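Design request, tokens follow.
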């Protein structure tokens, strides 16, 4: 497992993540956290990696965590020399194709990708696990109240714009 994790870290550091210093190896604290977390999850049997191999080399890798009866994608990396073949996407597609047989004890696997991520295009089914805000201070409470009011105002504006657009469309249809 340690060799696979080291290979994953190398792949995750390639390309834009390494250039922008957002990969795990770019920050000693992040790297330490990842190694400790991975060791603990592995020791508890709650870590799984998926890999794509080419000519004996790993060209794509994902690190995934298990909590209860659910799997969660944590991080992925791929060899940028093969980017035109999309090895990271191929790896995700393989997870989806083989998940039922390989992970029969899991109820679902969440990609953990943001809704606007490219992952959502190939892994379209989504389940909202939680959505909310938590504040811990009076200033945070005031900020949250302001945000909630702004969201309601935006929704009201959006709703009235949609109604007026629909009304204009209905008028055009009726005059034909």
């Amino acid at each position: 497992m340690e060799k696979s994790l080291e290979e994953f870290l190398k792949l995750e550091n390639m390309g834009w993540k390494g250039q922008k210093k957002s990969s795990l190896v770019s920050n000693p604290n992040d790297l330490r956290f990842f190694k400790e977390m991975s060791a603990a999850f592995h020791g508890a049997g709650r870590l799984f990696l998926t890999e794509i191999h080419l000519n004996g080399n790993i060209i794509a890798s994902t690190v995934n965590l298990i909590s209860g009866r659910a799997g969660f994608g944590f991080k992925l990396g791929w060899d940028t020399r093969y980017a035109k073949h999309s090895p990271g996407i191929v790896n995700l597609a393989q997870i989806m194709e083989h998940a039922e047989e390989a992970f029969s004890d899991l109820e679902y696997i969440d990609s953990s990708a943001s809704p606007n991520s490219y992952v959502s295009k190939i892994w379209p089914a989504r389940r909202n696990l939680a959505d909310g805000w938590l504040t811990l201070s009076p200033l945070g409470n005031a900020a949250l109240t302001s945000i909630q009011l702004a969201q309601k105002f935006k929704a009201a504006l959006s709703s009235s714009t949609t109604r007026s657009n629909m009304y204009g469309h209905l008028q055009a249809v009726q005059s034909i």
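Comment from the thread starter after seeing the answer: thanks! Helices lie at 2-12, 16-19, 28-43, 87-102, 119-122, 138-174.
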